[in-house]
Design a protein that fits this description.
Layout lengths: L1 E5 L3 E6 L7 E6 L12 H7 L2 E5 L2 H13 L4 E2 L3 H7 L12 H13 L5 E6 L2 E8 L2 E9 L1 H11 L19 H27 L4 E5 L3 H4 L6 E3 L3 H11 L1
Helix pairs in contact: 4-8, 5-6
C-alpha cells in the first residue's frame, strides 16, 4: 500500500506492507510534483493500492488530478470508517483535520482500552483527548515556526528566525530571547493542557508526534514518542 499524506509543510509518500514499518519519501508540499517523482516511486504507484489525504485541499486535488492523468487511481479514506472507529461530536465532522483523524485513529485502535492525550507538534500544534472510547475534543495552537513568523511579520524590528538552534532558559540577545519565549510559551501550553485534560482522564497516556516532537519531548514526562503516528493511523484508516 502507498499512502500520500499532504501536510502544510511536507508531503509524505509512504510504502508499507504491515502498517508498522514505512519507507518514506519526504517532499516540500509547495514544490512537490507527482509527475516528477524519483525512481522507483512512479513504478511503485502503478503497482500498489494508493490512498491520498491531507490538510492542503488544493495540493491534494492537484496530486489526484496528476495521478489520474498518469493512470494511477488514488482513493481517499472513508470518513464513515473514522466516525465508526472514533466516535465524536466535532462540528462539522468534515472540518476535523485529516492529520488529527489519523493520529486519533492510531491511538484508538492501538490502545483500545487506554485514554490518550495525543499531541502533534507540527506546523500547527494539536492537543487532542481520546477518553472513554471517544474523541472528547482538543486544542489547536500555532507551532514553533508559525509563532516565530508571526513575531517577525507583526513587528518592525524583530528578526525572522528559524526554529533551529539552542533554546536558552533566558535570552541575552534578541534572537535568543525570541527562541526562549516562543519555545517556553508552547511547552507551558502543552504542560498546562496535560494537567487540565487529566482532570477528565486521570490515567491518560501522552503520545507525542510531529516534526517538532523531539524539541518538546524533554519537557513532557512519561511521554511516548511515536514519529510515524500519522502514517500508522492513515494505514489503519485505509484498511477500513
Amino acid at each position: 500500500m502507498i499512502l500520500i499524506a499532504i501536510g502544510n509543510t511536507h508531503a509524505l509518500l509512504a510504502e508499507s506492507t504491515d502498517g508498522k514499518h514505512f519507507a518514506v519519501l519526504r517532499l516540500p508540499t509547495a514544490a512537490a510534483d507527482p509527475g516528477q517523482l524519483p525512481a522507483p516511486w512512479p513504478e511503485k504507484l502503478r503497482q500498489e493500492s494508493v490512498f491520498l489525504g491531507g490538510v492542503v485541499p488544493h495540493a491534494a486535488q492537484a496530486w489526484a488530478q496528476t495521478l489520474s492523468r498518469l493512470g494511477i487511481p488514488a482513493r481517499e479514506p472513508d470518513p464513515a470508517v473514522f466516525q465508526r472507529r472514533v466516535p465524536h461530536a466535532y462540528t462539522p465532522a468534515a472540518s476535523l483535520g485529516f492529520d488529527r483523524c489519523c493520529c486519533l485513529l492510531a491511538a484508538a485502535l492501538d490502545y483500545p482500552h487506554q485514554d490518550s492525550i495525543v499531541i502533534d507538534a507540527g506546523t500547527a500544534v494539536t492537543i487532542d483527548l481520546y477518553a472513554q472510547g471517544r474523541f472528547q475534543g482538543g486544542r489547536i495552537l500555532p507551532g514553533l515556526t508559525m509563532s516565530l513568523l508571526a513575531l517577525a511579520q507583526g513587528t518592525a524590528l524583530l528578526p525572522d528566525l528559524s526554529p533551529e538552534g539552542d533554546i536558552p532558559f533566558l535570552g541575552n540577545d534578541t534572537a535568543a530571547s525570541i527562541r526562549s519565549g516562543v519555545y517556553h510559551m508552547l511547552a507551558s501550553a502543552l504542560q498546562g493542557a496535560i494537567t487540565q485534560y487529566r482532570q477528565r482522564a486521570p490515567n491518560a497516556q501522552i503520545i507525542l508526534t510531529g516534526g517538532d516532537a523531539p524539541r518538546f519531548l524533554p519537557t513532557l514526562p512519561a511521554t511516548q514518542h511515536i514519529p510515524q503516528l500519522l502514517l500508522r493511523g492513515f494505514y489503519l484508516w485505509a484498511q477500513g
